[in-house]
Amino acid sequence: MTRHPEISDAQWRTFVADIAEALELREGDRVFDVQCGTGALLGPLYEAGCVVGGCDPDTAAIDKARRDMPGGEWSVGDVTSLDASEEWDVVIACRVLDASWELADATELLEKMVRKAAVAVAILDVPPGLTFDDRWFLRSLSALGVASVRLPALQIAEYDSAGRFNVIARLR
Description:
Layout: H1 9-22, E1 30-34, H2 43-47, E2 51-56, H3 59-68, E3 73-76, E4 88-94, H4 103-116, E5 117-126, H5 134-143, E6 148-150, E7 165-170
Parallel strand pairs: 1-2, 1-4, 2-3, 4-5
Antiparallel strand pairs: 5-7, 6-7
């Protein structure tokens, strides 16, 4: 599993543990990561007994995720090919959204994530200055009928995440 080279394993594991706590994850919960790369975010969850899966357009990254987490469910594809018909407890997208996204595409991704999730959706490490800011997420998720939305301060120690924010929506 590959993470940012400037982030230590301990810092990363603490960050993922904070995410798991915010999502109230337990052993056996099913967690799907949109654009998962090599599965760095999912690795500690897999080790903790979660069932994990993800999609990414990079075949080599998915191959590595398959090797590192052989019990996972992996597919090659980009976020536009996200299959919302297969339900997971929690659907996560970390560092997926950036300035290249159009508002309509971000709306479609959010809708697919909510349809795919049974319990919660997490959009993590969203950069500042986008058309879809924290207020847009609150409005959009409310319109999709989620039960609650929070903007927790989940950050990696000593990593510059100034202005970035996280969104967690509980569906029930």
